[in-house]
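Q: Please design a sequence for this.
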């Protein structure tokens, strides 16, 4: 949340700022005033230090740190779709799981923007009753942003092209931004799954992996957003591939255009938009595997947030929700996707054997499918622990070792 003093000053200068933003006949005074307003417009609203301070206050039993989770899309605009599976449905699945994890921690006051019955009542009322204020808020922010770009005070940077949000969706997103600002949200997490245009929408695409979008570095909420993103990215990248889409393959992607994370400098809190992978990826296509994967994606996000706030975070028994696991049946290549294989792949990642040397997680994802990648990694596991013969499938001896190391106690 921006400093109270800054908010008070801004109330007094907004009208003048918009007036100057539309003028080109600048006197020396107006030029100085323009620079002054620009400095207010882009003053840091969240940083590593302010986030840590908020957490420390919560640790002392004072005001809790506020987190808003926004599952992407809704029943009106359901987002991308693949073979009958809608993005809005699985973003809510992940959002609910992440909510449960964060809400169990006494440091956090967590809110889910929508549930299976609709938008949170407070947010729904805000969107319904505050249309004039939301529209004016967006108008002012856009006017200031456009003028400062034209004057060279701010550099316009478009790194990744995005589809333009429908008018109703844009209104909801800007409205949620304003609601988050007025309600002091310290962290805003937008949950999405990716897709891209292609001729055969019923067929899987060629790109894979997750990405974390954050506000571009000139924005007020850029610093706080980046430090949270770095911690979350590190956790997710342990088990899941980073996006290989050109320009998105940086993993953490700065952006000026996405409304969710503060287009036109409209968000005060640290804001992340996480694309948790492409909707057609194999771990999302089998319902049993999808449930396990979504639970783990939420868990990795939670661990990343805790890594940032805790210098010595509580040690979980395992660093993934896919373990511990008890393997009771042999696992062979070309068998159908199953939980046995998914947990096997997670164990092999921890062993440092998956994906096999020379391959990436994009080529060999943790999918629950037992293919050539898993076979090579199992052979390496058998070699590491002296299991003979090195068959490449998980038979009795291999399962016994897996259960010894990673089995449910």
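A: Design:
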């Amino acid at each position: 949340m921006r400093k109270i003093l800054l908010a008070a000053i801004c109330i007094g200068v907004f009208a003048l700022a918009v007036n100057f933003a539309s003028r080109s006949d600048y006197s020396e005074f107006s030029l100085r005033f323009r620079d002054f307003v620009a400095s207010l417009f882009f003053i840091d609203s969240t940083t590593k230090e302010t986030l840590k301070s908020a957490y420390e206050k919560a640790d002392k039993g004072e005001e809790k740190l506020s987190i808003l989770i926004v599952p992407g899309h809704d029943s009106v605009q359901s987002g991308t779709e693949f073979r009958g599976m809608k993005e809005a449905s699985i973003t809510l699945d992940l959002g609910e799981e992440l909510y449960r994890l964060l809400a169990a921690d006494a440091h956090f006051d967590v809110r889910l923007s929508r549930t299976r019955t609709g938008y949170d009542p407070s947010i729904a009322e805000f969107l319904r009753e505050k249309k004039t204020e939301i529209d004016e808020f967006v108008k002012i922010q856009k006017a200031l942003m456009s003028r400062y770009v034209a004057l060279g005070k701010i550099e316009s940077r478009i790194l990744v092209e995005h589809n333009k949000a429908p008018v109703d969706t844009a209104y909801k997103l800007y409205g949620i931004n304003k609601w988050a600002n007025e309600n002091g949200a310290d962290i805003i997490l937008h949950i999405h799954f990716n897709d891209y245009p292609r001729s055969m929408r019923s067929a899987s695409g060629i790109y894979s992996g997750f990405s974390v979008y954050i506000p571009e570095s000139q924005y007020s909420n850029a610093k706080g957003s980046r430090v949270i993103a770095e911690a979350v990215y590190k956790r997710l990248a342990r088990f899941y591939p980073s996006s290989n889409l050109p320009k998105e393959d940086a993993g953490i992607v700065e952006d000026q255009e996405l409304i969710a994370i503060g287009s036109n400098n409209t968000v005060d809190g640290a804001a992340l938009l996480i694309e948790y992978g492409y909707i057609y990826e194999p771990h999302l296509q089998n319902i049993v595997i999808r449930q396990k994967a979504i639970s783990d994606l939420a868990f990795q996000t939670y661990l990343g947030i805790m890594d940032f706030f805790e210098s010595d975070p509580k040690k979980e028994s395992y660093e993934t929700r896919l373990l511990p696991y008890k393997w009771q049946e042999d696992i062979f290549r070309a068998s159908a996707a199953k939980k046995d294989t998914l947990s096997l792949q997670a164990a092999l990642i921890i062993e440092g054997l998956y994906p096999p040397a020379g391959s990436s997680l994009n080529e060999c994802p943790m999918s629950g499918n037992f293919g050539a990648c898993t076979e090579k990694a199992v052979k390496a596991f058998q070699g590491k622990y002296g299991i003979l013969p090195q068959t490449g499938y998980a038979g009795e001896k291999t399962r016994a070792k897996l259960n010894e190391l990673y089995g449910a106690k």
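Q: Thanks. Anything notable?
A: Residues 4-41 form one domain. Confidence is low (pLDDT under 50) at residues 1-16.
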